[in-house]
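Ticket #4471: complex job returned nothing on first submit. Input attached below:
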Amino acid sequence: MKRAFTVLLIAVAVMGLLIAQEDIPVKLTLTMMVAGDQNMVDFFQYEIAPEFEKVYPNVKIKVVGTGPGDAGSQQIIQQLQLEKDSGKDKWAVDLVVIHETGAVWAIERGLIRQYTDFLTAKRLAIRNTDEMALGVNVDGYVMPMFHSQTAIAYNPRFVKDPPKSYAELVEWVKKNPGKFGYNGIKGGMSGVSFVFGWVYYKSKNTDILINGPYDKKYEEDWPQIYAELKEFNKYVTMTAGNAGTLDALNRGEIWMGPVWVDMFYTWMREGRMDPNIRIIILAPGMPGQPMHFAIPTKAANADYALKLVELVSSPKMQAKYIVERFNWYPAISDDFVTPYLTKDVLEKIYKDVKQADLLKYGKPMPLLPYKQDMQEAYEKWVEK
Amino acid sequence: MRFSIWRITLKVIFVVFMLLIMIGPLVGIVIWSFARVWYWPSPIPQEFTLRYWLEVFRQGRVLNSLMLSVTIALLTVVFSITLAIPAAYGFARYKLPFERVLLLLFLMPQTFPQLPVFINLASIFGRMGLRGNIWGIILAHTMASLVFSLWIITATFKSIPVELEHVAQNLGASRFKTFWTVTFPLAIPGIIAGAIYVFLWSMGEFTAAFFIGAPFIQTAPVLMYTSSMGYNLQIASVIAIILVIPSLIFMVLIERFLKAEYIAGLGG
Amino acid sequence: MEVRNRIVGFLLILPAFLILALLYVYPLIRAIWMSFIKDGFLSLANYAKAFDIYSRDILYSVVITSVTVGFVLVLSILLASYLRFKEWRFLDIMYRLPLFIPFLIVGHAMRIFLAPHGTLNSLLTRILKVEELPGFSRSWIGLLWTFVWVMTPYAALIILGAFRALDSSYIEAARNLGASKGKIVFTVIIPMCKPSIMVAAILTFVRTISSLTILVMIGPNTPNMITVDMMFRINFFNDWGVANALGVISYLIVIVLAVYYLRFMAAERGGIKG
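Support reply: We reran it on our side without changes. The output follows.
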């Protein structure tokens, strides 16, 4: 009896030790690389990191921003490739936030892993962006962080009756030369999206460009389309990047220009944007895209990375931060988010662009090969 | 000296013009650093704020990058001066073959196009694990700043009469002891001037810091660059002012050290 | 003794020299070597591509740089001539202001200053009572303006140094012969200071063509200078071959001038005037 008691005591002690050990988590740094403009970096550094570190005090989040556009994603891919080539068992990057293009590249090169099966929030995503990106199956590899949309921002001071379609915009720029500005295709995705929207508007094969299949024969009408864009560009100011367009709008240097809705609202919130400026989506539609969370194949702290994704994707956080604080469109269905939101907030983010407009005019990006062809075509036919 | 009204008017116009084009750009960044809301057509910001200046003192991106830059600059100074003192003494006191060519070789990193060297250095460092590492930046800065420390200290050593050393040696002091007790103390002002040059140059250096450090290491100039490119004009302006002020003070203080050769690379 | 001295002197400069060799000369040689490598083979493909895509940019770099040098020389000679004859503390300080400001900051300040609705135009439109003035940032005018702004003080410093070092007896002699100040500058001072003026010109050229930050801050989107193209090749395409080819091309442009530079520096008895 006594002996049994001793054994029990030892067992309890050992278990206690084990539990205690589990209770003392190792201090670690969770390194995440984020493509996109400064607003994205700020979001993680100043909003998400403190929230996360409150729940997991042993974790310190390090946010590394790589800049806007596909060039930002490209830098992340390069870094992951370096890690892979080094043959290390544990990569220094735990979590990445990338564009759709970046996600496709990363999957092709085996740089990110499948993880979303372990994610509760995955079931709340309703658009199919978590399954398909640019015509490639990305199911399991990515979880959207938020959805964004390009739109045309305009200053009602000068533009009383904004154009509602690409066709009307063409007329408008002729009457107001130099007052419409965009950033070409090298200075960030808002300009790229504007160009894609232009091709969607002119092309006979818009559906095929978005849904496939890929075949050069559907690009036959492009020379004409780009020649018209070149003509259009004569009446247009070239701005310096996504942020450059916003700044030029704020400074009254241009009256209209394509912007990312998320950046637009971030600027508005920080007071860096003339509060009178409004947005509108042109018919027949402009592209939008999500930013994706992905976890590198051999991330050292994949478990905490997953927890961070779970946190940001949860309805409460999506409501509080993505929608309320940053005025971005949520990654998960509105139905899950709305219970946490006041009517005011909802009205604010859908003030200019109504949910119906988003469904009607918010288009996906084209298939990856078409996308690359479109960008090259611009360099070949418009810039030269 | 005739005093005509035209002459004075002309002079006033010239002074105003000079102030506008020389000081104007700096005034612009000062205003932006305090702006919260500033949209056209208002000539000055609609709302002012100290928020961006407070970021300099608060834990965060701006403070971190400034501390990082100071650390890098201080370590660069230590390495650069330590390497330069013996070399400068060698150049000043010993007859060396190809002396001029060697001295000019040290000038190369500051006059020849730097970018190709820095990007290749970045790729070499990448394989050695020095990319995204402050030691990589410190090494690059030490190399490129050698010209300032070396040239200034060489000139200082040359200006110290060699007879002083001879006297000490005649009294039985060893060459090293002579250097340590006679030459070195006399050279301290020059060494300090060299150190300040190197420090300021390193603080403002962008190209090497960007290609070797970014995106993992964000020195103050790199953060300024990314902020300015992202039109975070306030943050960029605050950092710009902080980086400029010591340089301007320095310019006034050590006017007599101001020789064209030394500043070839400042700014670069 | 002589030999021993030389060895000691050599040992003293060795550490600094090693750093230079490892961190400067080696990457420099690597840059040249890599520019001839395409997919692991020796070839000229990188150069072909560089010229194919960027020939306009190469030309643009040379033109912008040359025009900058022209403006800088005229302005700095004017400044130096004035200050040679007359002390004016205000001007003396003003012209030197940009010397110590890092290029990156100059670029940022100019981008705010010269924007279409920047600080300069906000002021001018109010004084002149006009609605709108053209902005110069992101155009070649703004670029030129900024280059001249930062390069002039440096050239002026060199030229003024030479002007001041000139023995005043020549000037007195010319003056006694009844020459005006303008004439003295053109017939006496400038010819006698030619080497320094050349050095100023060459250094301005090299510094302009190798600058990167000013261009990214206020240069136009297209055309662009070689340095920006190099940055682009690496950041967007991870294409080191073409980037290095462009680097070598910029070296070749500079090397012609560097030869002159070395000769003049040798003639001037080098940069150390201890």
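Strands of chain B lie at 35-37, 47-48. Closing as resolved unless it happens again.
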